């Protein structure tokens, strides 16, 4: 008998390597998903209009960014900020 020299053994190591890579990627994904990895926008369950302690809402962040870029002048920024604060309360 011939052990390990048949046609099927040629596919053994590439398939094993792919399986190992898949397991490593699965573990990385699971750690990021369940350990609070970045999901593109703050903590899960946060509402864009109700920030927590010391955090700005997403709407406020956009308003601040537009003001910093020069898209809004001071009076327009203050008016929109007042409207935003009134809406949150």
What overall form do the CA principal axes indicate? rod-shaped
Number of discrete helical segments: 3
Strand proportion, as a percent range, falls in: under 5%
Mean pLDDT figure = 76
The N- to C-terminal Cα distance equals: 81 Å
DSSP, total strands: 0
Structural class by secondary-structure content: mainly alpha
Major β-sheet profile: none
Computed CA radius of gyration, to the nearest angstrom: 26 Å
Fraction of helical residues: 55-70%
Low-confidence stretches: 43-51
Order of helices and strands: HHH
Describe the 3D structure.
The chain is mainly α. It is 56% helix and 0% strand. It is built from three helices and no strands. Helix 2 runs antiparallel to helix 3. 2% of the residues are buried. About 10% of the residues have low confidence.
Brief descriptors of the model:
single chain, 89 residues, mainly alpha, 3 helices, 0% strand
Question: What is the gist of this entry?
Answer:
The chain is mainly alpha-helical and 89 residues long. Helices cover 56% and strands 0% of the residues.
């Amino acid at each position: 008998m011939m052990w390990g020299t048949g046609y099927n053994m040629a596919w053994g190591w590439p398939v094993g390597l792919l399986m190992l890579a898949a397991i490593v990627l699965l573990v990385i994904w699971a750690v990021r998903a369940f350990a609070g990895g970045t999901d593109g926008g703050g903590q899960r369950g946060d509402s864009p209009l109700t920030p927590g302690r010391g955090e700005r809402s997403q709407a406020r962040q956009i308003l601040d960014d537009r003001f910093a870029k020069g898209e809004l002048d001071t009076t327009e920024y203050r008016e929109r900020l007042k409207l935003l604060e009134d809406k949150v309360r």
